[in-house]
Design a protein that fits this description.
There is one protein chain. The chain is an alpha+beta fold. The protein folds into two domains: 6-142, Fructose-1,6-Bisphosphatase, subunit A, domain 1 (Fructose-1,6-Bisphosphatase, Chain A, domain 1, 2-Layer Sandwich); 151-261, D-Maltodextrin-Binding Protein, domain 2, CATH 3.40.190.80. It is built from eight helices and 13 strands. It has helices at 6-32, 40-61, 92-96, 168-181, 191-199, 213-225, 239-242, 253-261, and strands spanning 66-69, 73-75, 82-90, 103-110, 113-121, 126-131, 135-138, 141-142, 155-158, 184-186, 205-208, 229-231, 245-248. It is globular, with a radius of gyration of 18 Å. The chain starts with 5 loop residues before the first helix and ends with a helix. Bound molecules: D-MYO-inositol-1-phosphate (IPD) and calcium ion (2 copies). Residues 87, 90, 214-215 line the site of one calcium ion.
Amino acid sequence: MIVRSAAINVMTAAARKAARGLLRDFGEVEQLQVSKKGPGDFVSAADHRVEKVLRQELKKARPEYGFLLEEGGVVEGIDRHNVWIIDPLDGTTNFLHGIPHFAISIGLVRDGEPIAGVVYQPLTDEMFWAEKGQGSFVNERRLRVSARRRLDESVIATGIPHHGRPEPELFLKQLARVMDATAGIRRFGSAALDLAYVAAGRYEGFWEIGLKPWDIAAGIILVREAGGYVSEIDGGHDMLSSGNVLAANDHLHLPLGSLLRSSI
Ligand code: IPD
Ligand code: CA
Ligand code: CA
């Protein structure tokens, strides 16, 4: 039987509670596509509502921990070691357009290192969760990164820079290299789920630059506990600050990194 720690129980319960409203709102968004005003303000309100529920629930369980919230920013805790890093809605553009691919991401970071993470995809009811030293899971099933060793058999996910995001030229060079060497590239629009899918062995790897800590704090521990590797593209380990991420299974992290670096 899988034993979940108190922290994981708190995180998964908060995610499930917050997801109820999000699912209701997603139903509304599909209707709003055809309205004149569009669903923009409605989605932003939905996003804030999710964050409020998560914050309340986590605060109740661990009153002394701090927060880094995408919408609410930094909230200092009495305990300076433990911080919840939260993206209430990862995949906002998908949600806004009625595309069914988005998630809630909650990372617990201790002294700068992710030690527990939950990424919840409400539409598929997949609760991805991991804790340092305990493994990575989806619902009740243990996760393991994929065993593929060959780039030409691999599916790699990425994020495409948009709207003034950094370094579009570099991205195009990286894309050309990876396209040429692999079985396919996916851009599904949720970095948190991209990392969860690497942990689940659905993608062999994922890279993106210009991410924020709330996009990746939970996903990093999911991949690591599933036996994969996460670093910056140049091999550094400052992903939470730089927003530069390369995640892959244990066989392909090095070759994929070399390929991406050869684009510079
Ligand atoms: C975005 C998603 C997307 C990634 C962007 C992020 P948001 O987060 O994770 O996949 O490419 O860089 O900003 O805005 O949907 O929370
Ligand atoms: Ca995000
Ligand atoms: Ca978001």
